[in-house]
Design brief:
Distance between the termini: 90 Å
Helix content: 55-70%
Order of helices and strands: HH
Oligomer: single chain
Structural class: mainly alpha
Mean pLDDT: 81
Strand content: under 5%
Number of strands: 0
Length: 86
C-alpha cells in the first residue's frame, strides 16, 4: 500500500467518524434516551387522589395502625411460655 492510498483511507476514515459524531450531537432532545438535567415533566392537571379518596385512605390507614397496636398490646399482656433448659 502506497503512502497516498494510506493517506486517502485515513482521510476517509476520519471523515466518516466526524460525520457519525456530528449526527449524534444533532439528535433532537426527544430522541435522547435520558431527559435533560433541568427538564421537568408537565404539571399534573388532576390530583393523584380526590378529597374523598384521601379521607378514605386516611381512615383505612388509621384502622390498620390501630389494629396492629391492639395486636401488640395483646402479645405484651400474655407472658411468653418458659422453655426448660436441657
Amino acid at each position: 500500500m502506497s503512502k497516498n492510498e494510506r493517506a486517502i483511507r485515513l482521510a476517509a476514515l476520519a471523515l466518516g467518524l466526524s460525520l457519525t459524531q456530528s449526527e449524534a450531537f444533532a439528535a433532537e432532545p426527544s430522541k435522547n434516551a435520558y431527559p435533560g438535567a433541568f427538564d421537568r415533566p408537565p404539571a399534573n392537571e388532576q390530583p393523584a387522589l380526590t378529597k374523598d379518596e384521601q379521607s378514605k385512605l386516611k381512615d383505612d390507614l388509621t384502622k390498620a395502625r390501630d389494629h396492629q397496636n391492639s395486636q401488640v398490646k395483646t402479645k405484651e399482656a400474655t407472658p411468653a411460655p418458659r422453655t426448660k433448659k436441657p
